[in-house]
Amino acid sequence: MYKVTLFLLFLCFSINVYTQSEVEIAITGMKTVKGNIYMALCADESQFDEKEEPYIGHLLPVNDYVLIHTLELPEGEYALLIYHDENENGKLDKNVFGMPKERYGFSNNEFGPHGSKPKFEKALFKVGPNELVGIDIQLRR
Fold this sequence. Notes:
Helix content: 10-25%
Largest sheet: 5 strands, antiparallel
CATH class: Mainly Beta
Radius of gyration: 18 Å
Structural class: alpha+beta
């Protein structure tokens, strides 16, 4: 029985690894080489609307004008929210009118009216099983 259980665990692990895909995210548009990039990968609309924690959140130091980050993800649909926290205060700084003072972007380089957050459906990208997906995000302000 022990050998059968061990084999089934190994099989499940192998299937899970096999269906992971590699998503390479290229972020450009930084005007300075300082601070951090905050990246939120969202698997559903409530995460994208920031009502729930993102599926994956990363803090990436900015050390060049182009930042490449790779994720291993299961098959599904996702959307990205990204901003460049130049002054490292842990938030997207906004002016008195609520407009961002730091650069930001979304997957598919989608923006809503007047540079606002797009609808979740517009920012979605698909990840199939065992594929390499390239995502380019141009930050803007």
